[in-house]
User: What shape does this take?
Amino acid sequence: MTLAAEGVVVRYGAHRVLDGVSIAAEPGVLLGLIGPNGAGKSTLLRVLAGIERPTAGRVTLDGAALETIPGAVRARRIAYLAQGSTVHWPLTVERLVALGRLPHRSRFGAETETDRAAIGRALAKTETAALRDRPVSSLSGGERMRALIARALVVDAAILLADEPVAGLDPYHQLQLLELLRTRADAGGAIVVVLHDLTLASRFCDRLALLDAGTRVASGAPDAVLSVANLARVYRISALTGTHDGTPYIVPVHRARDGGVRAGGGDGA
Amino acid sequence: MTRVGAAATATRLRLPALGIGLGATVVLLFAVSLAVGSAPVLLAEAVADLLAGRDSLAALVLVEIRLPRALLAVMIGASLGLTGAAMQGLLRNPLAEPGIVGVSGCAALGAVVVFYSGLAALVPFALPLGGIAGALGAVALLYALAGPGAGTLTLILAGVALNALAAALTALALNLSPNPYATLEIVFWLMGSLADRSLAHVWLALPLMLAGWALVVTAGRPLDALSLGEDTARSLGFNLDRVRLQLVLGTALAVGSAVAVAGAIGFVGLVVPHLLRPLVGHQPSRLLGLSALGGAAITLAADIAVRLAGGPELKLGVLTALIGAPFFLALVLRMRHEAAT
Assistant: This one.
Protein backbone atom coordinates (compact mmCIF):
# COMPACT_ATOMS: atom_id res chain seq x y z
CA MET A 1 0.00 0.00 0.00
CA THR A 2 1.52 3.31 -1.13
CA LEU A 3 0.69 6.72 0.29
CA ALA A 4 1.89 9.56 -1.92
CA ALA A 5 1.85 13.34 -1.66
CA GLU A 6 2.28 15.19 -4.95
CA GLY A 7 3.09 18.88 -5.15
CA VAL A 8 1.55 19.56 -1.75
CA VAL A 9 1.16 23.22 -0.80
CA VAL A 10 -0.08 24.33 2.63
CA ARG A 11 -0.58 28.01 3.20
CA TYR A 12 -1.51 29.76 6.47
CA GLY A 13 -2.41 33.25 5.31
CA ALA A 14 0.51 34.49 3.23
CA HIS A 15 2.96 32.05 4.83
CA ARG A 16 3.70 28.91 2.84
CA VAL A 17 4.42 26.11 5.29
CA LEU A 18 4.76 23.60 2.47
CA ASP A 19 5.56 24.73 -1.03
CA GLY A 20 5.11 21.94 -3.55
CA VAL A 21 6.44 18.89 -1.71
CA SER A 22 6.25 15.39 -3.17
CA ILE A 23 6.97 12.34 -1.06
CA ALA A 24 5.83 8.71 -0.96
CA ALA A 25 5.52 6.06 1.74
CA GLU A 26 6.11 2.70 0.08
CA PRO A 27 5.87 -0.87 1.37
CA GLY A 28 9.09 -2.15 2.86
CA VAL A 29 10.65 1.30 3.09
CA LEU A 30 11.57 3.15 6.26
CA LEU A 31 11.59 6.78 5.17
CA GLY A 32 13.12 9.37 7.48
CA LEU A 33 11.76 12.89 7.30
CA ILE A 34 14.42 15.31 8.49
CA GLY A 35 15.04 19.04 8.51
CA PRO A 36 15.49 21.95 10.90
CA ASN A 37 12.71 23.34 13.12
CA GLY A 38 9.93 24.93 11.10
CA ALA A 39 10.85 23.11 7.88
CA GLY A 40 7.30 21.74 7.56
CA LYS A 41 7.90 18.12 8.61
CA SER A 42 4.95 17.88 11.01
CA THR A 43 2.62 19.63 8.59
CA LEU A 44 3.63 17.23 5.83
CA LEU A 45 2.93 14.28 8.12
CA ARG A 46 -0.49 15.72 9.05
CA VAL A 47 -1.31 16.13 5.36
CA LEU A 48 -0.23 12.53 4.68
CA ALA A 49 -2.39 11.33 7.59
CA GLY A 50 -5.43 13.09 6.16
CA ILE A 51 -5.75 15.31 9.24
CA GLU A 52 -5.11 18.48 7.28
CA ARG A 53 -6.23 19.21 3.72
CA PRO A 54 -3.51 20.79 1.55
CA THR A 55 -4.15 24.18 -0.07
CA ALA A 56 -2.97 22.68 -3.37
CA GLY A 57 -1.58 19.39 -4.57
CA ARG A 58 -2.93 15.92 -3.88
CA VAL A 59 -2.49 12.98 -1.55
CA THR A 60 -3.32 9.50 -2.81
CA LEU A 61 -3.57 6.09 -1.17
CA ASP A 62 -2.90 3.41 -3.81
CA GLY A 63 -3.97 5.94 -6.46
CA ALA A 64 -7.25 6.98 -4.81
CA ALA A 65 -7.56 10.55 -3.54
CA LEU A 66 -7.23 10.41 0.27
CA GLU A 67 -10.21 12.69 0.94
CA THR A 68 -12.55 10.33 -0.95
CA ILE A 69 -11.71 7.44 1.39
CA PRO A 70 -14.13 7.11 4.34
CA GLY A 71 -12.58 8.08 7.68
CA ALA A 72 -12.93 4.64 9.27
CA VAL A 73 -11.27 2.91 6.28
CA ARG A 74 -8.46 5.46 6.20
CA ALA A 75 -7.95 4.98 9.96
CA ARG A 76 -7.38 1.24 9.48
CA ARG A 77 -4.82 1.83 6.69
CA ILE A 78 -2.85 4.73 8.17
CA ALA A 79 -1.69 4.92 11.78
CA TYR A 80 -0.51 8.31 12.99
CA LEU A 81 1.57 9.13 16.03
CA ALA A 82 1.28 12.83 16.87
CA GLN A 83 4.13 14.95 18.13
CA GLY A 84 4.24 15.39 21.89
CA SER A 85 2.70 13.09 24.45
CA THR A 86 -0.40 14.82 25.72
CA VAL A 87 -3.05 12.55 27.21
CA HIS A 88 -5.99 14.50 28.57
CA TRP A 89 -7.33 12.02 31.13
CA PRO A 90 -5.36 9.71 33.45
CA LEU A 91 -6.40 6.54 31.58
CA THR A 92 -4.52 3.34 32.34
CA VAL A 93 -1.86 2.37 29.80
CA GLU A 94 -3.99 -0.55 28.63
CA ARG A 95 -7.07 1.64 28.05
CA LEU A 96 -4.87 4.20 26.27
CA VAL A 97 -3.44 1.59 23.93
CA ALA A 98 -6.93 0.15 23.35
CA LEU A 99 -7.97 3.47 21.77
CA GLY A 100 -5.87 2.45 18.76
CA ARG A 101 -8.36 -0.36 18.11
CA LEU A 102 -11.33 2.01 17.72
CA PRO A 103 -11.14 1.96 13.88
CA HIS A 104 -11.53 -1.84 14.00
CA ARG A 105 -14.54 -1.93 16.32
CA SER A 106 -18.03 -2.35 14.89
CA ARG A 107 -20.41 0.50 15.66
CA PHE A 108 -21.64 -0.72 19.02
CA GLY A 109 -19.49 -3.84 19.35
CA ALA A 110 -17.31 -4.58 22.34
CA GLU A 111 -13.60 -5.39 22.22
CA THR A 112 -12.92 -8.73 20.51
CA GLU A 113 -10.26 -11.38 21.13
CA THR A 114 -8.39 -9.97 18.10
CA ASP A 115 -8.37 -6.54 19.72
CA ARG A 116 -7.09 -7.91 23.00
CA ALA A 117 -4.39 -9.96 21.27
CA ALA A 118 -3.24 -6.89 19.30
CA ILE A 119 -3.12 -4.84 22.51
CA GLY A 120 -1.02 -7.53 24.20
CA ARG A 121 1.44 -7.61 21.27
CA ALA A 122 1.79 -3.81 21.17
CA LEU A 123 2.42 -3.67 24.93
CA ALA A 124 5.05 -6.40 24.65
CA LYS A 125 6.84 -4.78 21.69
CA THR A 126 7.16 -1.44 23.46
CA GLU A 127 8.03 -3.04 26.83
CA THR A 128 5.02 -1.42 28.47
CA ALA A 129 3.22 -4.60 29.52
CA ALA A 130 4.37 -4.09 33.11
CA LEU A 131 2.81 -0.63 33.05
CA ARG A 132 -0.56 -1.74 31.69
CA ASP A 133 -2.59 -0.95 34.82
CA ARG A 134 -0.77 2.28 35.67
CA PRO A 135 -2.55 5.59 34.96
CA VAL A 136 -0.60 7.53 32.32
CA SER A 137 -0.41 10.50 34.69
CA SER A 138 1.94 8.45 36.90
CA LEU A 139 4.38 7.63 34.07
CA SER A 140 7.62 9.36 33.15
CA GLY A 141 7.76 11.23 29.83
CA GLY A 142 9.58 8.37 28.13
CA GLU A 143 7.23 5.70 29.49
CA ARG A 144 4.25 7.74 28.31
CA MET A 145 5.81 8.10 24.87
CA ARG A 146 6.24 4.31 24.66
CA ALA A 147 2.61 3.81 25.62
CA LEU A 148 1.60 6.22 22.83
CA ILE A 149 3.84 4.33 20.40
CA ALA A 150 2.03 1.14 21.41
CA ARG A 151 -1.25 2.97 20.72
CA ALA A 152 -0.07 3.69 17.16
CA LEU A 153 1.29 0.15 16.60
CA VAL A 154 -1.90 -1.50 17.80
CA VAL A 155 -3.82 -0.09 14.80
CA ASP A 156 -1.96 -2.71 12.71
CA ALA A 157 -2.07 -0.35 9.73
CA ALA A 158 -0.10 -0.90 6.52
CA ILE A 159 1.23 2.64 6.81
CA LEU A 160 2.72 4.19 9.95
CA LEU A 161 3.43 7.91 10.25
CA ALA A 162 5.35 8.86 13.39
CA ASP A 163 6.19 12.43 14.39
CA GLU A 164 9.34 12.51 16.54
CA PRO A 165 8.67 9.20 18.30
CA VAL A 166 12.10 9.14 19.99
CA ALA A 167 11.60 12.50 21.72
CA GLY A 168 12.01 11.92 25.46
CA LEU A 169 13.17 8.31 25.12
CA ASP A 170 16.40 7.13 26.73
CA PRO A 171 19.12 5.81 24.34
CA TYR A 172 18.17 2.18 24.97
CA HIS A 173 14.54 2.77 24.03
CA GLN A 174 15.48 5.00 21.09
CA LEU A 175 17.42 2.10 19.59
CA GLN A 176 14.69 -0.33 20.52
CA LEU A 177 12.03 1.79 18.79
CA LEU A 178 14.03 2.20 15.60
CA GLU A 179 14.78 -1.53 15.51
CA LEU A 180 11.04 -2.05 15.88
CA LEU A 181 10.31 0.29 12.96
CA ARG A 182 13.07 -1.38 10.94
CA THR A 183 11.54 -4.82 11.55
CA ARG A 184 8.12 -3.53 10.61
CA ALA A 185 9.42 -2.05 7.35
CA ASP A 186 11.29 -5.29 6.55
CA ALA A 187 7.98 -7.12 7.01
CA GLY A 188 6.43 -4.92 4.31
CA GLY A 189 5.19 -1.93 6.30
CA ALA A 190 5.39 1.57 4.84
CA ILE A 191 6.82 3.93 7.45
CA VAL A 192 7.52 7.64 7.56
CA VAL A 193 9.28 8.86 10.67
CA VAL A 194 10.27 12.40 11.64
CA LEU A 195 13.68 12.40 13.33
CA HIS A 196 16.06 15.01 14.69
CA ASP A 197 18.80 12.56 15.58
CA LEU A 198 20.87 12.36 12.40
CA THR A 199 22.81 9.29 13.51
CA LEU A 200 19.61 7.32 14.03
CA ALA A 201 18.27 8.66 10.73
CA SER A 202 21.36 7.67 8.75
CA ARG A 203 21.65 4.31 10.43
CA PHE A 204 18.12 2.92 10.33
CA CYS A 205 16.35 4.60 7.41
CA ASP A 206 16.37 3.29 3.85
CA ARG A 207 15.86 6.77 2.50
CA LEU A 208 15.80 10.28 3.85
CA ALA A 209 13.85 13.30 2.68
CA LEU A 210 15.37 16.60 3.79
CA LEU A 211 12.94 19.48 4.15
CA ASP A 212 13.90 23.12 4.44
CA ALA A 213 11.52 26.07 4.58
CA GLY A 214 8.64 24.07 3.11
CA THR A 215 10.48 22.48 0.21
CA ARG A 216 12.18 19.14 -0.24
CA VAL A 217 15.82 20.06 -0.81
CA ALA A 218 17.24 16.56 -0.97
CA SER A 219 16.09 12.95 -0.94
CA GLY A 220 17.63 9.56 -1.40
CA ALA A 221 20.14 7.36 0.40
CA PRO A 222 21.13 8.66 3.86
CA ASP A 223 24.82 9.30 3.13
CA ALA A 224 23.95 11.30 0.01
CA VAL A 225 21.34 13.40 1.80
CA LEU A 226 23.49 14.02 4.88
CA SER A 227 26.34 15.49 2.86
CA VAL A 228 28.73 18.07 4.25
CA ALA A 229 27.18 20.69 2.01
CA ASN A 230 23.58 19.88 3.09
CA LEU A 231 24.47 19.90 6.79
CA ALA A 232 26.09 23.31 6.37
CA ARG A 233 23.44 24.83 4.13
CA VAL A 234 20.23 23.44 5.66
CA TYR A 235 21.14 22.66 9.27
CA ARG A 236 23.80 25.38 9.52
CA ILE A 237 26.14 23.06 11.42
CA SER A 238 29.41 21.28 11.01
CA ALA A 239 29.50 17.74 12.30
CA LEU A 240 31.80 14.97 13.22
CA THR A 241 30.99 12.11 10.86
CA GLY A 242 32.40 8.65 10.44
CA THR A 243 31.74 5.00 11.12
CA HIS A 244 32.26 2.89 14.17
CA ASP A 245 32.35 -0.86 13.52
CA GLY A 246 30.59 -0.18 10.21
CA THR A 247 27.85 1.88 11.86
CA PRO A 248 27.70 5.49 10.66
CA TYR A 249 27.49 8.35 13.16
CA ILE A 250 26.96 12.08 12.87
CA VAL A 251 27.71 14.26 15.86
CA PRO A 252 26.88 17.97 15.52
CA VAL A 253 29.89 19.95 16.72
CA HIS A 254 29.73 23.60 15.67
CA ARG A 255 27.24 26.05 14.35
CA ALA A 256 28.47 26.70 10.84
CA ARG A 257 30.75 29.64 10.36
CA ASP A 258 33.00 28.14 7.75
CA GLY A 259 30.56 25.42 6.70
CA GLY A 260 33.22 22.77 7.24
CA VAL A 261 32.79 19.20 8.38
CA ARG A 262 35.58 17.46 10.22
CA ALA A 263 36.48 13.94 9.30
CA GLY A 264 35.81 11.44 12.04
CA GLY A 265 38.05 8.91 13.64
CA GLY A 266 36.97 6.18 11.27
CA ASP A 267 36.52 2.52 12.07
CA GLY A 268 37.43 1.42 15.53
CA ALA A 269 37.97 4.97 16.81
CA MET B 1 2.54 -3.16 40.88
CA THR B 2 0.31 -6.09 41.83
CA ARG B 3 -1.65 -3.85 44.11
CA VAL B 4 -2.25 -1.34 41.29
CA GLY B 5 -3.13 -4.20 38.94
CA ALA B 6 -5.66 -5.53 41.42
CA ALA B 7 -7.16 -2.06 41.74
CA ALA B 8 -7.62 -1.84 37.97
CA THR B 9 -9.28 -5.24 37.86
CA ALA B 10 -11.57 -4.10 40.65
CA THR B 11 -12.49 -1.06 38.54
CA ARG B 12 -13.47 -3.32 35.65
CA LEU B 13 -15.58 -5.55 37.87
CA ARG B 14 -17.10 -2.55 39.60
CA LEU B 15 -18.58 -1.02 36.43
CA PRO B 16 -21.78 -3.08 36.13
CA ALA B 17 -22.20 -3.02 39.91
CA LEU B 18 -21.89 0.75 39.86
CA GLY B 19 -24.57 1.04 37.16
CA ILE B 20 -26.95 -1.25 39.05
CA GLY B 21 -26.28 0.53 42.33
CA LEU B 22 -26.93 3.98 40.87
CA GLY B 23 -30.02 2.71 39.04
CA ALA B 24 -31.41 1.25 42.27
CA THR B 25 -30.69 4.54 44.07
CA VAL B 26 -32.66 6.44 41.43
CA VAL B 27 -35.63 4.05 41.78
CA LEU B 28 -35.53 4.36 45.58
CA LEU B 29 -35.30 8.15 45.54
CA PHE B 30 -38.09 8.27 42.95
CA ALA B 31 -40.35 6.37 45.37
CA VAL B 32 -39.33 8.66 48.25
CA SER B 33 -40.03 11.69 46.06
CA LEU B 34 -43.56 10.38 45.45
CA ALA B 35 -44.09 9.91 49.17
CA VAL B 36 -42.85 13.34 50.27
CA GLY B 37 -44.85 16.57 50.14
CA SER B 38 -46.85 19.15 52.01
CA ALA B 39 -50.17 17.27 51.69
CA PRO B 40 -50.39 14.34 54.14
CA VAL B 41 -50.88 11.60 51.58
CA LEU B 42 -49.98 7.97 52.16
CA LEU B 43 -48.24 6.57 49.13
CA ALA B 44 -49.75 3.08 49.50
CA GLU B 45 -53.23 4.50 49.85
CA ALA B 46 -52.81 6.75 46.81
CA VAL B 47 -51.49 3.90 44.66
CA ALA B 48 -54.35 1.64 45.80
CA ASP B 49 -56.91 4.32 44.90
CA LEU B 50 -55.24 4.85 41.57
CA LEU B 51 -55.23 1.15 40.70
CA ALA B 52 -58.88 0.84 41.76
CA GLY B 53 -59.76 3.80 39.58
CA ARG B 54 -61.00 5.88 42.52
CA ASP B 55 -60.69 9.63 41.97
CA SER B 56 -59.61 10.26 45.53
CA LEU B 57 -57.68 13.30 46.66
CA ALA B 58 -54.69 11.07 47.40
CA ALA B 59 -54.65 9.68 43.86
CA LEU B 60 -55.04 13.17 42.45
CA VAL B 61 -52.12 14.54 44.47
CA LEU B 62 -49.97 11.61 43.40
CA VAL B 63 -50.63 11.91 39.66
CA GLU B 64 -51.06 15.66 39.29
CA ILE B 65 -48.44 16.93 41.73
CA ARG B 66 -45.96 14.34 42.94
CA LEU B 67 -45.47 12.26 39.79
CA PRO B 68 -44.61 15.15 37.42
CA ARG B 69 -42.20 16.50 39.99
CA ALA B 70 -40.39 13.18 40.41
CA LEU B 71 -40.34 12.50 36.66
CA LEU B 72 -38.96 15.95 35.90
CA ALA B 73 -36.28 15.54 38.56
CA VAL B 74 -35.15 12.30 36.87
CA MET B 75 -35.29 13.75 33.34
CA ILE B 76 -33.58 17.02 34.18
CA GLY B 77 -30.97 15.44 36.45
CA ALA B 78 -30.14 12.84 33.79
CA SER B 79 -29.89 15.55 31.12
CA LEU B 80 -27.54 17.64 33.24
CA GLY B 81 -25.33 14.70 34.26
CA LEU B 82 -25.13 13.29 30.74
CA THR B 83 -24.41 16.56 28.96
CA GLY B 84 -21.98 17.63 31.69
CA ALA B 85 -19.96 14.46 31.09
CA ALA B 86 -20.17 15.03 27.32
CA MET B 87 -19.02 18.67 27.49
CA GLN B 88 -16.14 17.80 29.82
CA GLY B 89 -15.11 15.10 27.35
CA LEU B 90 -15.47 17.29 24.27
CA LEU B 91 -13.57 20.21 25.77
CA ARG B 92 -11.22 17.89 27.71
CA ASN B 93 -11.70 20.08 30.71
CA PRO B 94 -13.05 18.90 34.08
CA LEU B 95 -14.37 22.39 34.80
CA ALA B 96 -16.72 22.45 31.79
CA GLU B 97 -20.45 22.23 32.44
CA PRO B 98 -23.52 21.89 30.20
CA GLY B 99 -24.18 25.63 30.18
CA ILE B 100 -20.70 26.42 28.87
CA VAL B 101 -21.84 26.68 25.25
CA GLY B 102 -24.48 29.26 26.18
CA VAL B 103 -27.65 27.17 25.79
CA SER B 104 -28.91 27.47 29.35
CA GLY B 105 -28.42 31.24 29.43
CA CYS B 106 -30.28 31.62 26.14
CA ALA B 107 -33.06 29.25 27.22
CA ALA B 108 -33.53 31.34 30.37
CA LEU B 109 -33.57 34.50 28.26
CA GLY B 110 -36.24 32.97 26.01
CA ALA B 111 -38.41 32.29 29.05
CA VAL B 112 -37.78 35.76 30.47
CA VAL B 113 -38.85 37.36 27.18
CA VAL B 114 -42.09 35.40 27.39
CA PHE B 115 -42.64 36.63 30.96
CA TYR B 116 -41.79 40.18 30.04
CA SER B 117 -44.02 40.32 26.98
CA GLY B 118 -46.98 39.08 29.00
CA LEU B 119 -47.39 36.07 26.72
CA ALA B 120 -46.87 33.78 29.73
CA ALA B 121 -50.27 34.76 31.11
CA LEU B 122 -52.08 34.57 27.76
CA VAL B 123 -50.80 31.45 25.99
CA PRO B 124 -50.61 28.05 27.71
CA PHE B 125 -47.04 26.71 27.94
CA ALA B 126 -45.66 29.88 26.39
CA LEU B 127 -42.96 29.79 29.08
CA PRO B 128 -41.34 26.44 28.27
CA LEU B 129 -41.85 27.05 24.56
CA GLY B 130 -40.04 30.37 24.88
CA GLY B 131 -37.21 28.61 26.71
CA ILE B 132 -36.88 25.99 24.00
CA ALA B 133 -36.91 28.69 21.31
CA GLY B 134 -34.10 30.43 23.21
CA ALA B 135 -32.02 27.23 23.34
CA LEU B 136 -32.46 26.57 19.62
CA GLY B 137 -31.59 30.20 18.87
CA ALA B 138 -28.39 29.63 20.85
CA VAL B 139 -27.49 26.64 18.67
CA ALA B 140 -28.09 28.65 15.49
CA LEU B 141 -25.88 31.47 16.77
CA LEU B 142 -23.22 29.04 17.97
CA TYR B 143 -23.12 27.39 14.59
CA ALA B 144 -22.82 30.76 12.86
CA LEU B 145 -19.97 31.74 15.22
CA ALA B 146 -18.17 28.41 15.54
CA GLY B 147 -19.36 26.29 12.63
CA PRO B 148 -17.43 23.70 10.62
CA GLY B 149 -13.66 24.07 10.81
CA ALA B 150 -13.71 26.21 13.94
CA GLY B 151 -11.75 24.76 16.83
CA THR B 152 -12.75 23.93 20.38
CA LEU B 153 -11.42 27.23 21.67
CA THR B 154 -13.69 29.15 19.28
CA LEU B 155 -16.61 27.07 20.56
CA ILE B 156 -15.83 27.99 24.18
CA LEU B 157 -15.37 31.67 23.32
CA ALA B 158 -18.64 31.70 21.38
CA GLY B 159 -20.34 30.11 24.41
CA VAL B 160 -18.89 32.74 26.75
CA ALA B 161 -20.09 35.50 24.39
CA LEU B 162 -23.59 33.98 24.16
CA ASN B 163 -23.84 33.62 27.94
CA ALA B 164 -22.76 37.24 28.41
CA LEU B 165 -25.27 38.44 25.82
CA ALA B 166 -28.10 36.39 27.36
CA ALA B 167 -27.24 37.67 30.85
CA ALA B 168 -27.17 41.28 29.61
CA LEU B 169 -30.54 40.97 27.86
CA THR B 170 -32.07 39.21 30.89
CA ALA B 171 -30.85 42.08 33.10
CA LEU B 172 -32.29 44.55 30.59
CA ALA B 173 -35.69 42.85 30.74
CA LEU B 174 -35.61 42.99 34.55
CA ASN B 175 -34.48 46.61 34.46
CA LEU B 176 -37.30 47.69 32.14
CA SER B 177 -39.95 45.53 33.77
CA PRO B 178 -43.08 47.71 34.29
CA ASN B 179 -44.10 46.30 37.66
CA PRO B 180 -42.14 44.90 40.59
CA TYR B 181 -44.29 41.76 40.83
CA ALA B 182 -43.36 40.74 37.30
CA THR B 183 -39.69 41.31 38.21
CA LEU B 184 -40.04 39.18 41.32
CA GLU B 185 -41.77 36.44 39.36
CA ILE B 186 -38.95 36.38 36.80
CA VAL B 187 -36.27 36.34 39.48
CA PHE B 188 -37.96 33.46 41.31
CA TRP B 189 -38.40 31.52 38.11
CA LEU B 190 -34.75 31.98 37.20
CA MET B 191 -33.72 30.33 40.49
CA GLY B 192 -34.94 27.00 39.21
CA SER B 193 -37.60 24.82 40.76
CA LEU B 194 -39.72 21.73 40.13
CA ALA B 195 -42.68 22.86 42.25
CA ASP B 196 -46.12 23.10 40.64
CA ARG B 197 -45.18 21.42 37.38
CA SER B 198 -47.69 19.18 35.60
CA LEU B 199 -47.51 16.11 33.39
CA ALA B 200 -47.90 18.47 30.43
CA HIS B 201 -44.44 19.83 31.25
CA VAL B 202 -43.14 16.27 31.17
CA TRP B 203 -44.64 15.62 27.73
CA LEU B 204 -43.33 18.91 26.43
CA ALA B 205 -39.74 18.30 27.49
CA LEU B 206 -39.48 14.53 27.05
CA PRO B 207 -39.29 14.27 23.21
CA LEU B 208 -36.63 16.98 23.02
CA MET B 209 -34.66 15.41 25.84
CA LEU B 210 -34.83 11.95 24.26
CA ALA B 211 -33.53 13.38 20.98
CA GLY B 212 -30.75 15.19 22.86
CA TRP B 213 -29.78 12.08 24.84
CA ALA B 214 -29.63 9.99 21.67
CA LEU B 215 -27.27 12.48 20.03
CA VAL B 216 -24.97 12.61 23.06
CA VAL B 217 -24.91 8.92 24.00
CA THR B 218 -23.83 7.85 20.49
CA ALA B 219 -20.74 10.08 20.66
CA GLY B 220 -18.94 7.94 23.27
CA ARG B 221 -16.19 6.63 20.98
CA PRO B 222 -15.09 9.94 19.51
CA LEU B 223 -15.04 11.30 23.07
CA ASP B 224 -12.67 8.48 24.03
CA ALA B 225 -10.50 9.19 20.98
CA LEU B 226 -10.38 12.88 21.93
CA SER B 227 -8.45 11.89 25.09
CA LEU B 228 -5.45 11.81 22.74
CA GLY B 229 -6.09 15.25 21.23
CA GLU B 230 -7.86 16.37 18.08
CA ASP B 231 -5.22 15.28 15.55
CA THR B 232 -5.08 11.72 16.85
CA ALA B 233 -8.88 11.55 17.10
CA ARG B 234 -9.08 12.56 13.42
CA SER B 235 -6.44 9.99 12.51
CA LEU B 236 -8.64 7.36 14.19
CA GLY B 237 -11.31 8.14 11.59
CA PHE B 238 -13.62 10.53 13.45
CA ASN B 239 -15.09 13.60 11.78
CA LEU B 240 -14.69 16.11 14.59
CA ASP B 241 -16.83 18.81 12.96
CA ARG B 242 -19.72 16.37 12.97
CA VAL B 243 -19.00 15.17 16.52
CA ARG B 244 -18.92 18.75 17.77
CA LEU B 245 -22.24 19.59 16.10
CA GLN B 246 -23.80 16.37 17.38
CA LEU B 247 -22.76 17.09 20.98
CA VAL B 248 -23.64 20.79 20.96
CA LEU B 249 -27.05 20.13 19.40
CA GLY B 250 -27.72 17.22 21.80
CA THR B 251 -26.73 19.35 24.80
CA ALA B 252 -28.86 22.25 23.58
CA LEU B 253 -31.93 20.03 23.17
CA ALA B 254 -31.55 18.30 26.54
CA VAL B 255 -30.42 21.25 28.66
CA GLY B 256 -32.51 23.82 26.79
CA SER B 257 -35.71 21.87 27.46
CA ALA B 258 -34.62 21.29 31.09
CA VAL B 259 -34.16 25.03 31.66
CA ALA B 260 -37.39 25.73 29.80
CA VAL B 261 -39.50 23.67 32.22
CA ALA B 262 -37.57 24.19 35.46
CA GLY B 263 -35.36 27.26 35.24
CA ALA B 264 -31.62 27.13 35.82
CA ILE B 265 -30.36 24.30 38.03
CA GLY B 266 -26.63 24.68 38.34
CA PHE B 267 -23.67 22.52 39.35
CA VAL B 268 -25.32 19.10 38.84
CA GLY B 269 -23.73 18.83 35.39
CA LEU B 270 -20.37 19.93 36.76
CA VAL B 271 -20.21 17.91 39.95
CA VAL B 272 -21.70 14.54 38.98
CA PRO B 273 -19.27 13.58 36.17
CA HIS B 274 -16.47 14.69 38.44
CA LEU B 275 -17.46 12.42 41.29
CA LEU B 276 -17.92 9.42 39.01
CA ARG B 277 -14.92 9.85 36.69
CA PRO B 278 -12.31 8.10 38.89
CA LEU B 279 -14.68 5.15 39.33
CA VAL B 280 -14.76 4.43 35.57
CA GLY B 281 -11.02 4.74 35.00
CA HIS B 282 -11.48 8.25 33.57
CA GLN B 283 -12.82 6.91 30.26
CA PRO B 284 -15.27 9.46 28.76
CA SER B 285 -17.57 6.94 27.05
CA ARG B 286 -18.10 4.93 30.24
CA LEU B 287 -18.90 8.10 32.12
CA LEU B 288 -21.92 9.09 29.99
CA GLY B 289 -24.59 6.64 31.16
CA LEU B 290 -23.42 6.62 34.76
CA SER B 291 -23.44 10.43 34.92
CA ALA B 292 -27.03 10.42 33.67
CA LEU B 293 -28.01 8.09 36.54
CA GLY B 294 -25.92 10.07 39.03
CA GLY B 295 -27.48 13.35 37.89
CA ALA B 296 -30.98 11.90 38.28
CA ALA B 297 -30.17 10.64 41.79
CA ILE B 298 -28.67 13.93 42.98
CA THR B 299 -31.49 16.04 41.52
CA LEU B 300 -34.13 13.76 43.09
CA ALA B 301 -32.32 13.94 46.43
CA ALA B 302 -32.01 17.74 46.29
CA ASP B 303 -35.67 18.12 45.34
CA ILE B 304 -36.67 15.89 48.27
CA ALA B 305 -34.45 17.94 50.57
CA VAL B 306 -36.05 21.27 49.62
CA ARG B 307 -39.46 19.82 50.46
CA LEU B 308 -38.36 18.31 53.77
CA ALA B 309 -36.62 21.48 54.98
CA GLY B 310 -38.88 23.67 57.06
CA GLY B 311 -39.86 27.27 56.35
CA PRO B 312 -40.60 28.66 52.91
CA GLU B 313 -39.59 26.10 50.27
CA LEU B 314 -36.04 26.65 49.05
CA LYS B 315 -35.69 26.85 45.27
CA LEU B 316 -34.00 23.73 43.91
CA GLY B 317 -31.48 25.79 41.94
CA VAL B 318 -30.54 27.66 45.11
CA LEU B 319 -29.88 24.42 46.99
CA THR B 320 -27.78 22.87 44.20
CA ALA B 321 -25.75 26.10 44.00
CA LEU B 322 -25.31 26.19 47.79
CA ILE B 323 -23.92 22.66 47.76
CA GLY B 324 -22.24 22.83 44.36
CA ALA B 325 -20.28 26.04 44.71
CA PRO B 326 -18.18 24.92 47.72
CA PHE B 327 -17.57 21.65 45.90
CA PHE B 328 -16.36 23.63 42.91
CA LEU B 329 -13.99 25.61 45.14
CA ALA B 330 -12.63 22.39 46.63
CA LEU B 331 -12.11 21.09 43.10
CA VAL B 332 -10.13 24.15 42.06
CA LEU B 333 -7.99 23.87 45.18
CA ARG B 334 -7.31 20.19 44.54
CA MET B 335 -6.35 20.85 40.92
CA ARG B 336 -4.00 23.60 42.08
CA HIS B 337 -2.48 21.20 44.56
CA GLU B 338 -2.06 18.53 41.87
CA ALA B 339 -0.47 21.04 39.51
CA ALA B 340 1.99 22.04 42.24
CA THR B 341 3.14 18.49 42.98
Confidence is low (pLDDT under 50) at residues 263-269 of chain A. The radius of gyration of chain A is 19 Å.
